[in-house]
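Suppose you are handed only these lines of text.
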Amino acid sequence: MRPMNSPRIDSLDTLRARIRAFAEARAWERYHTPKNLVMALTVEVAELQEPFQWLTPEQSQALDPAQREAVRQEIADVLIYLTRLADLLDIDLLDAAAHKLDINARKYPVEKARGNALKYSDLPQDD
Ligand SMILES: [Mg+2]
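From them, the structure of the protein bound to magnesium ion can be written out as follows.
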């Protein structure tokens, strides 16, 4: 689905650089404040919800090609704004995600969380 003249993006670093160049070429840096980017990200997440709106759980797992393409494009928008936001705040996305997964693993020990969807504060406590 990548246009033939579009350079391949094979890492978050490459994506970040490509988004930077995209913004710089259009002199959009002044609009890309953290506040504005968070708002744009939120809008894109809402747009990602739209193709799923009113679907049954089963339908949401079997999207038709048009629905799947809509989801694909909105996921890309979310990733682009998230990457740009992290770039401006000097946050390493992969490092932040790895750190949060470690935190979540402590909050949701396998022996307590496996097979249920309880919030960590509702999991059985050790005595
Ligand atoms: Mg969008």
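What can we learn from it? The domain at 12-91 is CATH 1.10.287.1080 (Helix Hairpins). The pocket of magnesium ion is lined by residues 44, 47, 74, 77 (CB under 6 Å).
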